[in-house]
Amino acid sequence: RGSGRTIGRVTVQQHDSALAMADGLTSCWAKEQGVELIQRFGGIFEPEDEKLYALENLALSPSQEIILDSALQEIEQAKTSSLARKRLPIRMPSRRATAGCYGRILAEANAGRLEGVIAEIGLAEKAAADDVNQQRVNLLLLLRNLSTFNQGVWSLEGELIEDTGIQDFGALYGEAFQ
To answer: Which residues is 167 bridged to in the sheet?
Structure first.
């Protein structure tokens, strides 16, 4: 038969194929969820109660790490775009511009330059480039802050620039592409 060892009525080969397909679907779903997450929380039109509900669901989700990793990957990929690398003087309705706002804030948080600025983000700790767990925590703290901040990630970034006085705010994000 060439179908491999049987587990009940399903062969091991069929079982492994089903798991591989499910993993592919999970990663595709997680990517969509990660992208939607940063867009929803970064925008100005999402109601606060819906953002709080989404944050609660994320906290309870067994896929939390995969979704946060997907969001971090989306933010990382956006830094090659000119819309994402530098803060624009006006809010742009662009996925890459929004991801760039996240990227610049997270670059500062991961560098340890936002300690004590805003209560939630002030808890963010310095994260090494290979410390994915701390980067996830910093993103989650940023999302928690944005869940009750109705002016969007672009405005939050502006407030952080003003509050910190950091002249080169976010320069670490995408610096290799500038």
So the answer is: none
**Residue 89 corresponds to which amino acid?**
P
CA distance 52 to 90: 27
Helix (H, G, I), strand (E, B) or coil at 175: helix
Alpha-helical segments (H) within the chain:
12-42, 48-60, 64-78, 82-85, 95-110, 119-122, 132-147, 152-164
Q: How many CB atoms lie within 10 A of CB 167?
A: 7
- Cα-Cα-Cα-Cα dihedral sign, residues 95, 96, 102, 106: positive
The pLDDT tens digits for 18-74 are: 444 445 546 777 788 999 999 999 999 999 999 999 999 999 988 899 999 999 999
Token pair in block for residue 124: 């963010």
